[in-house]
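Q: Structure tokens for this one, please.
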Amino acid sequence: MTAPSRRSTFGPVREVFEKSFTQQAPIPEAGIARAVEVMRSGKLHRYNTAPGETSETQRLEAEFAAATHARFALAVASGGYAMRLALRAHGIGPGDRVLSNAFTLAPVPGAIASLGAEPVFVGTTEDLTIDLDDLKAKAGRAEVLLLSHMRGHIADMDRVMAIARDAGLTVIEDCAHTMGAYWGDVPSGRHGLIGCYSTQTYKHANSGEGGFVVTDDADLAAKMVLMSGSYMFYDRHGAAPDAEAFEALAGEMPNLSGRMDNLRAAILRPQIAALPENAAAWNALYRTVEAGLRGTPGLRIIERPAPERFVGSSIQFLLLDWPDAAIEAVLAGTRARGVELKWFGAPRPQGFTSIYRHWSYARPDPMPASDRVLRAILDMRLPLTFSADDCRLIARIVADEVARAAPHLAAE
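A: Here is the predicted structure, written as tokens:
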């Protein structure tokens, strides 16, 4: 089938992409069927079970614990709630400092600030991972690193954990973009003390909103279960510690109701089972776009390290040291042809796209080296509703618009 086209002043024909970048794959039929059963039962609340009955949320927690090789898992209301819960369970409170990436999304520093704590931002590299030299220099300024695997880019976790051990720094992982990914043979979220995940619509499992926390620490797991609003029904959890872990904590943990309901759990269960298959599908799309962009003048591909088994649900590339007007020309050109790129260098936050300098409540220190990288990042979703042909077309459009706007070409 011939791609749509439009006439252009640059030539006779310009290809155009006509699918939506926000249209996610449908919920699996098994999830829809089970969700309908839950609705017909009326038992949506997480603890609304008959004697001897196992809830959907319990089943989901057990299945997610198994998928991540964790002792304990808790399904919660959102990825942001997961991070807040993890930080609070670890004892973070007003006045504490928490390290986190300069390249992340707003809910990460928001989770820190919600507890009255202060985010301290660590720089980012041209590989879009946390700057380990900067981390080493700042490690003594906090007791926790909330490490964001932003847009699915995983830092060298062996080095991260070595720096953390040397500095006495606890690592909590934000895996909103790395559910189903690995560093080496270790699932993302399992290097640190606690792993936090999101099931918001644009993540790797879709319940509209939702998330998980996982840990091997029984005391922390018990605290998080109690704070999620267990009402002492902690025996109705699918991957929680034994009763002894809760006995000393009864009455000490505030109820911050936020455990996931049975309806969302029903929708998620088949998606968690399908994660390996979906990860492979995302990566095939990612590699197709990457191949189409490789070699484009002025465009830097992010090379993925061998130990990183990522999930390519989005793709990023850099236009390093380009003037703003040239980047804006790329954005305008691709947008006119149906391709939605997000720019992290925009002076104001746009939609989901913002960076550390936009969060004035955190009083961030300037980081010129990171600013150079951040202002160069262009970002694009790759939903599973796209085909390989779609991705080849998208890459052609992006490469064409980058070539048209490249500063050295414009100067010639």
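A few notes: The chain is about 35% helix and 15% strand. The longest strand covers residues 11-15.
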